[in-house]
């Protein structure tokens, strides 16, 4: 897990580059001109927004074009027209085109930024939103729900857009299927660039949701093709397909911590998609399968380390006679001609089997219905280093037929089947991430309807020369798996410019304050040795690093009770080699009390922190991606780290990763850590705590709950190699056995015990 | 209810009439010749069964024809080849035709009589079964499950067949959708004559079931068109549609006690069907709606007296987040251009609402989700006599949009909406059952996608001159709603010949025994006055009436302990004006101990019955359609009527109708009646007890349960105008309040009380 630590610094910050050549006569310059133009618009008309910032613009684009003569809404110069503040766009009518809008520096005042509907009676059909950007247009509070794009109606398109930076609750793109006007949609969601969606720290952080359990019986026919999902880390589902007959083709899922999930609905086609992981993250998944009749073909899974819900291929157990909003049994699914290259363990069956939880869960939550009538055929599993577990099974695998799957490692998994064949074959790297056998492996199984799998991952014909796996040879020389330029608007480049960090040296409090104000995001402030007395909070609303070669001392005065460092949305602070001291009445670190619209980060390394109230005190709805305290000394505080303000039992929590390593805590009167996640929820699989190599002394003396380290509901907890000395508590910690938590090699003297409870009674959210 | 009493005498008894002209060379004469012919058969070949009775013939018809050159299995002369005993047919392969087979005098030794599949690997596609008859081919025991036709595969047809008389458990026709080979079926079930399916007395008596809850997510595309359902009374569902995209068009449901039920699955098309009821039965229903997206158009509902589950149009409440096998909410349903003529109350909304049952049912059984986004438009409601309740609502009706529906009576229902318009219009009878306004009512509502409703009930164009209701004028002169000749094989006539009943007079025991043996079904035996001493049981395996003008006396001797009258399958006995006496050790009436393959009937009128053990003692799995004791005197018995042998709690019961009227019961030591139905089940809505005008004296003296009349689980109970005198029991009866049961005008002297319990705690079957 440690390797993830610093990746957060790779922010995406949009920079508009392409200067656009759109020119039209008489652009409209304000809302009333816009409205009047819309009022008059007929087939073939073009309405152009004048350059500039359109603040608080709630655009309603309603009209009826024709197929040959649509009505177009565009901008004077792409990139020079932004919609800011409380802005939104609603479309209603027929044959409308929206081109080149740029939403930034604001958020929607309604449910949606772009909505293909004005109200139930006014829906858009046959309309397109293209070449638009929605960037960081996130609500002030992460629990305010919205969608950035709501598709309604039929035959609409969302294409070549760039959409990134949603931190608040609600899927980024949501397709609605409620009402006969909104089914059989044939919507086309293509060529979009879905940029980073930060970890949300709770459910409802999907990048796309198509339907809902209530409308999961509808024929949706949504086509999601040739999109890039780039680090879409919001939650465990990148795409949540909740309707029937959707297709997902040729999309690239790049280092996205989640899966394409067939959550509700049936008969999805998942063909030719590319899932790219890396060596670091265990959270990057592939495809998770629930329900009936899906065809999963020609997909390419590379270096995915996820398991269980996040496995490259996760086929779940269902709940017998499942309630509408839970887990139907998986039946009649075909998994054919996929390539699994260098994954940790490609196939997980009966994921979510929880028969052993019947003590803490009602019968209607017990997933005991195993997959049935599943065909897994003609797949390729290759691992550079031997990988002996092609199958991980959480229940008996008796409903899966394996046919002609080729592996290069011996199969030592529990599931032994002659349809999994270990075989020596040569593999070649054809381009970045792309591996294929040096020669076609022709012995393919001919299953029912397999003649419909006519093409491979690259669209090559399979009917002539066929091969096991996603790729048939020959592959064209310029075959690339990932080419970011193919996605999003051509006028917009989401790549960050990598600048060398600027280092400013300071030696007085005044210089420090000034340097902090002037620093650009990414700036480093180096403090000369000495004592810096400070009164007001230091506001961290950008990426800042404070360091010192000689242990500078920051002393925070008594005259102010705000935190020494106040973390603001998007702020990242790294403190190295600096000693902080307070006055007992203020917290060392804190957040805003509200409007923590996006995540913050905090790293403390090799520093001393003492005489504060709390080490970290956060507000409800605030969210840290990473909190790290390492090689440091923390002492004489009232309490340690409080990340327990999400008390609604809705699966939310206050930090994704918490690392406390190789540090000493002494004389912390109450708990050293309170890290909490309430509610039974599976949409997120956090938080994550690493608590290793620390020494805790004389702490917990006033803690009423008699628990020193509280981690209730946190899924991943590592607790190893710590020394607990003279802490008068009953429990050092209570770990969650069912999640594999166990204390390792801790030394306990005159302190409480580390208890492991197998199952946790949680409040059901469903 | 009384009017139903004697309709059961209208048996269907098949008589083959048409002499067929099929001639082929070399018909096969036995199974081994058949098998060898099948083995050799290729495209274009015809295999012909030789005339005669093929006993215990398990035919496997496997082969691959082509579209232009199918392989045909036919018979030498239609009607002269019967499959009898333990016989069946299985088809496997492509382009097969089965023509003219006649199954009678037997039952299948497997799951099915005709199955479009040999096993999972050998399925029939593109194959047709036509002009066949399956008549009374019912299992010996009604709890042995089978289907008479099982459709598997794709593109199969079942057409012009006559199928009737199934008394055992299991739908008559069942379409299977398990496995990808069996979806998107496009099966055609057309022009069949589904003759009588007798009341089953428990669930699983559907005439057709398409899919199951487990496969209810599949696209089935089964087309059920232009069939006749003639008195299909098996249970509350005539057709149970449990899959998606099925269509039901131009079928006639004639006096069938049940409904076309959209039980699971979505997006059914129900267009142009005709539902004919009568003045007598309250069990004849129309369409019951569950789930999403159905279009119900151009249907004609005539004289239906059913309510709730059996209403002409029953739109149910759903269970929120329903389990897969229970009740989804109804949403997005369109009900347009239907005619409701002379129905009791046409539209029932929120049927099954049971919020008040939360005490006795688990939350997962509570139907509280009201219909949503329902459009009811352009329908015609006409009643000759004023009918002020077009809508019966079991919950708030807030999800239904009413538009341009025309009524001829004032609307005094709770639901008031300007989309229900009372209007004077002239109506004309165009042919039997067929009524339409004298002039088109042109003011139609134009709903979403209504342009797709291009035709009316008769296929007349709606795009030019349109009208409210199922019919647009003009209607052709020969328009008939019901013409039985259009259905089933042309060589077979299921109509009974109505013969005048033969009356035989007897004056001695010997003559009586002989007359009973010789009598044809329907025969009447008239006993002269006197005493007839009898030893053996009188076996009733046909329709027999025993009557006397002067109170003949039948005395059954001590030397035999079998029942005086032993009811056999299909037996019907009517006793009039005769006194029966026994010896205390035998029952007056009884059934076989097993193999009661079909229902029996018993009527006793104006007779005296005394000195028997029980009045009626039945076996498990036996089933009476009607038991009637009227104007009679019953005394000095150990117990009365026992209809309580179905103890499995699966919703089965031993008699559909029990009438005990204007009779005297005296000195019945134990219970006078034990009539039982166990298990929570909604597929059947029986049994039915009318207990009126009786006097019960000095009975129940030895009854351990202290209940005189036991009716546990029986749905319809009428208990009125009785006198209970000196019966030392605690309860005369315990009635079920939730089903509307209440005692009326009973006189109770020195007897127990009649208790009403609102809700009955029952064993859940699901």
From TrEMBL, chains A, B:
Source taxon at top rank: Bacteria
Coiled coil: none
CDD domains (alphabetical): PL-6
Protein's UniProt name: Poly(Beta-D-mannuronate) lyase
Species of the source: Christiangramia forsetii
Top-level taxonomy: Bacteria, Pseudomonadati, Bacteroidota, Flavobacteriia, Flavobacteriales
